[in-house]
């Protein structure tokens, strides 16, 4: 197999080898454009913005978020960038934007938690455990005002009736290892606790649990039936209390919270660099919300696209770069829910957008945060050359940074004066969910996206996600990957398609090698040959669709299309992969199509349209949603709905899922689609 792939590589790349760029030259872009961008962008400038943003507790609809949005707008105006605006969309809990129920704004003005001691027959404050003024992250999001002076009762996880047996909780404070939203119904609603103290841990990775002093971001349900308050404490604090409770000691606390939810607005700063064709746009996105300090997550991504806006705008205005063919737009929404709201409330944004580049956590110093930068593309259900463009620039920065770290010499090392000099070692390729890019690529809009993000980060969603953890060089490199990709996509025309095709050919061979390794491993594990044939069928269908996707941007010369098809056919022949006959569907085969009036993913942020409506309809949760894909990648439910296009049958959707996400029984796919049809998300039809 390996020998065949080497032969295929020679066949695919041999004709274009002489035309490849000289060593050290960037892919796709003219070298002087790439160098101009590299010289202008500044990781240090972006890091200074991170410092400023980290001072604000940026909850959706809050004063802190408003201050952060004002900061972004002020900086855009200071740099003279055009079309600066702040989009305001009502968020009151009643308005729906497609599948996202708007959530009212949440503000807190005061919150303190004290441990008390008994003196002279009365309880007095002894040690202040938590303070909103010092560390806003100690108060769980969506807490409401309340006050209590009460004993602490350990309810363990607090998610089952057994956790409460033999415990009197009425009027007391419940200590739980779960997120507050998971225990509020039982602890507050059924057992009448006065409030919740949580030491919930999340964001599991290799360093999870290593630091027992970390306080993690907590949540209560925005639309829960039992409003309450919850404080977040560290595992070290919680375990010290547990040891005392086991010894029979009383732990008495005083909690005081002033917080509320109220009608507000989703604020989304925006700006643009106008293109010669203003009807089409390349969009940069991030998410501006998250708790203070939230330096890497996601002050880093928001500061990075601000620096991209400043740099590209300056280079265009001073004539170093020409005016782009397509407009380059910048958006600073809150995570996921604001993006769903925007694309529903302002559909012209989706109509104009050809591709989105989303930056979410892009600056973590690897030695501190243990983070690896990921450059990911579109989901398997949305084949696009856009992924290959981002991957090409990601690989280039990897190569240049490694050359510089190894020898001190590189054509474009992309080192910031205030940053590190180590190799980037980004992971390039694939798709992963987890941020706003998955909204753009979802089946309602099907807009290709690049996702540039760190993972893991051992301090994510804690009080130690600090600006001190940020590396200016890593910021500069992530900024370059995004800026170079956007500039290329904003200017791609027919003349650039031949060189793009050569770049995509290399990426295609990378995928072919990956597919070959996967098939070999499955064959050794005893997989059925029909399943392996399905994987290869999906692979070649995907490659054909990637080539066709260029047509959304510009005309594709027939010669290029012909070369691409011949390369894929030669590879198929060498691998001994026969063209799979089309599956006979029958004239009466049922297909599904999306209901146009309902747009958005089934799970938003802080609200799940699917779970809400599933409960209202009295339907069981489909088994498909409990299925976990092996490794990173899209979820079964996300991709199954994305594959609904009015052409694929249920069996064909199952086959594509099995080839791209993982093995899955056809009946689980059919049951999930039937549930979606019952809820009015999709509707059946005939081929």
Q: CATH class of the largest domain, anyone?
A: Alpha Beta
Corresponding CATH architecture of the largest domain:
3-Layer(aba) Sandwich
Shape: globular
How much strand?
15-25%
* Largest beta-sheet characterization: 8 strands, mixed
CATH superfamily of the largest domain: Zn peptidases
User: Per CATH, what is the topology of the largest domain?
Assistant: Aminopeptidase
| Average residue-wise pLDDT | 94
Integer tally of domains: 4
Rg (CA only): 27 Å
Which residues form runs of ≥5 with pLDDT under 50?
A: 1-22
Helix count, DSSP H or I runs of 4 or more residues: 20
Spatial order of the strands in the main sheet?
A: 1-11-13-12-14-17-15-16
Q: How many strand units? A: 19
Percent in helix: 25-40%
Structural class: alpha/beta
N-to-C span = 38 Å
């Amino acid at each position: 197999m390996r020998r065949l792939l080497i032969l295929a590589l020679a066949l695919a790349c041999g004709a274009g080898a002489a035309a490849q760029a000289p060593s050290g030259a960037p892919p796709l872009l003219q070298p002087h454009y790439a160098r101009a961008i590299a010289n202008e962008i500044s990781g240090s400038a972006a890091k200074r913005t991170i410092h400023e943003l980290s001072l604000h507790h940026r909850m959706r609809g809050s004063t802190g978020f408003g201050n952060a949005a004002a900061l972004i707008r002020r900086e855009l105006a200071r740099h003279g960038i055009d079309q600066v605006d702040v989009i305001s969309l009502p968020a009151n809990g009643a308005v729906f934007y497609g599948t996202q129920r708007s959530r009212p704004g949440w503000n807190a003005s005061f919150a303190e938690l004290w441990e008390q001691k008994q003196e002279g027959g009365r309880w007095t404050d002894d040690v202040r455990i938590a303070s909103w003024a010092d560390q806003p992250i100690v108060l769980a999001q969506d807490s409401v005002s309340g006050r209590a002076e009460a004993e602490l009762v350990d309810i363990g996880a607090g998610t089952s009736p057994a956790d409460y047996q033999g415990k009197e909780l009425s009027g007391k404070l419940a200590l739980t290892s779960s997120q507050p939203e998971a225990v509020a119904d039982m602890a507050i609603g059924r057992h009448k606790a006065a409030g919740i103290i949580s030491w919930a841990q999340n964001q599991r990775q290799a360093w999870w649990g290593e630091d027992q002093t970390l306080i993690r971001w907590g949540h209560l349900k925005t639309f829960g039936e039992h409003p309450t308050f919850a404080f977040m404490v560290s595992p070290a604090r919680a375990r010290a209390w547990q040891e005392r409770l086991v010894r029979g000691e009383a732990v008495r606390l005083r909690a005081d919270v002033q917080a509320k939810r109220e009608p507000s607005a989703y604020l989304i700063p925006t700006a643009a660099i106008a293109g010669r064709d203003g009807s089409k746009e390349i969009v940069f996105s991030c998410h501006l919300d998250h708790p203070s300090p939230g330096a890497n997550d996601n002050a880093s991504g928001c500061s990075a696209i601000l620096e991209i806006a400043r740099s590209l705008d300056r280079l265009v205005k001073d004539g170093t770069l020409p005016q782009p063919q397509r407009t380059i737009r910048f958006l600073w929404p809150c995570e996921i829910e604001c993006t769903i709201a925007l694309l529903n409330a302002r559909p012209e944004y989706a109509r104009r957008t050809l591709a989105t580049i989303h930056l979410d956590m892009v600056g973590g110093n690897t030695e501190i945060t243990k983070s690896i930068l990921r450059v990911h593309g579109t989901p398997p259900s949305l084949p696009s050359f856009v992924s290959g463009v981002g991957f090409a620039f990601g690989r280039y920065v990897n190569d240049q940074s490694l050359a510089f770290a190894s020898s001190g010499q590189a054509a474009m090392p992309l080192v910031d004066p205030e940053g590190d000099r180590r190799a980037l070692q980004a992971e390039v390729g694939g798709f992963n969910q987890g941020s706003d890019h998955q909204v753009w690529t979802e089946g309602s809009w099907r807009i290709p996206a690049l996702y540039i993000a760190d993972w893991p980060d051992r301090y994510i969603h804690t009080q130690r996600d600090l600006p001190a953890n940020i590396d200016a060089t890593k910021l500069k490199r992530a900024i370059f990957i995004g800026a170079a990709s956007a500039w290329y996509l904003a200017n791609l025309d027919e003349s650039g398609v031949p060189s793009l095709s050569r770049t995509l050919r290399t990426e295609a061979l990378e995928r072919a090698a990956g597919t070959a390794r996967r098939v070999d491993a499955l064959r050794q594990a005893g997989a059925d040959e029909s399943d392996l044939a399905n994987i290869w069928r999906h692979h070649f269908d995907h490659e054909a669709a990637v080539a066709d996707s260029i047509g959304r941007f510009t005309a594709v010369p027939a010669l290029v299309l012909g070369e691409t098809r011949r390369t894929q056919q030669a590879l198929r022949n060498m691998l001994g992969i026969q063209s799979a006959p089309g599956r006979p569907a029958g004239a009466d085969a049922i297909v599904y199509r999306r209901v146009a009036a309902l747009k958005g993913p089934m799970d938003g942020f802080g609200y799940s349209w699917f779970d809400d409506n599933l409960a209202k309809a009295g339907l069981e949760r489909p088994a498909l949603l409990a299925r976990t894909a092996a490794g990173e990648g899209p979820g079964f439910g996300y991709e199954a709905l994305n594959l609904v296009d009015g052409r694929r049958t249920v069996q064909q959707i199952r086959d594509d899922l099995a080839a791209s996400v993982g093995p899955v029984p056809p009946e689980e796919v059919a049951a999930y689609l039937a549930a979606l049809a019952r809820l009015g998300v999709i509707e059946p039809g005939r081929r």
